[in-house]
Amino acid sequence: MAAVVGLLFLVLVYLAFGQADVTRNGTQTAADAAALAAAKESRDGLDIADVIDDLEAIFGGQVPTDSPDGCMQAVDFAARNDAVAGYDDCLPLNDGRWGYTVNVKSRKSMGDSIIDGTGSKHATASATAVIEPRCTFTPEESEVPEPDEGAEDDEKEPSPGKLRCDSEDWAIDPENLDLLPDMADLFTVRLAED
Predict the structure, then answer these.
(1) What is the 3-state secondary structure (H, E, C) of the chain?
(2) Which of 61, 73, 104, 109 has the CB geometry, 3.0–4.6 Å to 37, for a possible disulfide?
(3) Under 8 Å CB-to-CB from 53, ≥6 apart: which residues?
(4) What are phi and psi of 19, to 5 degrees?
């Protein structure tokens, strides 16, 4: 009889730890989704026309100052994954990388079990997503134009340079920026270590 009770106790403990592990994994998934959503929103909301003069710095790894805030998307994606993230739980990275760290808490507790105190405990998780260039930028070598008596004042604006993405070159025409690839083609979003 004692052996059966002991085995039942071990099964209950195993189930309690299993339930806690499932809750923790679900919360980590919510944190990952929230961080990726914040970074994606920041990347997709950036208008290349607004940063045309900073392309060399941005494709060199500098964080664009005009990138939109993606934290509302983080809050939304955490909620979609049964977790809670407040606006203060989403922070832009301050270590030189372009991205976000998001902290979330499971909406549901770990549930009552044989282990005391788990009924009111919530799983917490954190994730960091970064935005990195997929392309390289080569600035146009500026040549000083020679004065020309018959030159028109409304000359075409010179290209700031070209992008090289997957062995394909894209000359940047400031007057036709819509011909460039989408931001998703220019920058990748991925999870990263904190």
Answers:
(1) CHHHHHHHHHHHHHHHHHHHHHHHHHHHHHHHHHHHHHHHHHHHCCCHHHHHHHHHHHHCCCCCCCCCCCHHHHHHHHHHCCEECCHHHEEECCCCCEEEEEEEEECCCCCCCCCCCHHHCCCEEEEEEEEEECCEEEECCCCCCCCCCCCCCCCCCCCCEEEEECCEEEECCCCCHHHCCCHHHHEEEEEECC
(2) 73
(3) 160
(4) -65, -40
8 class by beta-carbon count within 10 Å (0-12 exposed, 13-18 middle, 19+ buried): exposed
92 vs 143, residue with greater confidence: 92
- Domain residue ranges of the chain, discontinuous segments joined by +: 2-142+156-192
Mean pLDDT for the chain?
A: 82
Rounded to an integer, the average pLDDT of 136-159 is 68
Distances in Å between the Cα of 19 and the Cα atoms of 15, 31, 113, 136 are 6, 19, 9, 47
Which residue, 51, 101, 105, 103, is CA-closest to 82? Answer: 105
